[in-house]
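If it is no trouble, might I ask you for a protein's amino acid sequence along with its backbone structure tokens?
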Amino acid sequence: MKRKINCETARNFSVEKALEKLGHFPNRTTEQEAWFLSPFRSETQASFKVSRTKNRWYDHGEGIGGNVIDLVCKVLKCTIKEALAFLDDNDAIGPIKRQPFGNTLESRIHIIKVKELEHPALLQYIRSRGIAIKVAKTYCKEVWYSYKDKAFFAVGLRNHKNGWELRNKLFKNSSSPKSYTYIQNKNKQLVVLEGMFDLLSLAMLDEDLLSTSDILVLNSIAFIKEAEKNFETYDLVHLYLDRDAAGQKVTKYLIESYKHAMDKSSRYENHKDLNELISHGKER
């Protein structure tokens, strides 16, 4: 039976690996140190240093530092006992052993497991985007995946071909096959959105609309030609695409092609998209 780690053995756990497990990745590295955006606050310049030789961290922004246990306790706001359990978790991120996959594009990201959203780093990320955890859990999952023999985790939205859109604080990825997400509830109207956080943002603003509509998330503007074949089966199509050049061009094309398609982007006319509206906390 595996023995549980104590404080002495836990201090040997790599600070870098602990940060990865918490969802934080270095901005730059050298042989002796790694620099991160601080896990304690929002910043654009990396002020959080990890000494690879001493396995210690120092936050220049706050003037504090310590060992890996101090780090986990501070980030997760937990007890030492809880920090030890976190570091002893078999789900720790690190190099993983697996059989080599092919060299095709489809095999570069390999899904390891899918579970309910619960990782503290992902929950923090979701909240930072203005989304309630309950809403995120309604539509998304916690997805662990491997890329170049390393394991990562992300908020995942499944598409209609069973591929995944993957988002976390630092990465925007997707697994193959890539396609649009189509949620069919046998309703007479369709809501069309561009991305995962547009869906979650609209759920925050108007859950009643989504509960009485079918939902199509493009996941990329490139899928509009493939997705629009579904439009004819609906009485109404509500378009909530980005208010940038690409989004507005597609919106114009759709309302000219389908008489029952309506541009709803005026709801966030002073913002690029629904999530920017949510982040500013100003619904119009």
Remarks:
- The longest helix spans residues 245-257.
- The longest strand covers residues 150-158.
- Residues 7-87 form a domain with the DNA Primase; Chain A fold (CATH 3.90.580.10).
- The chain is about 30% helix and 25% strand.
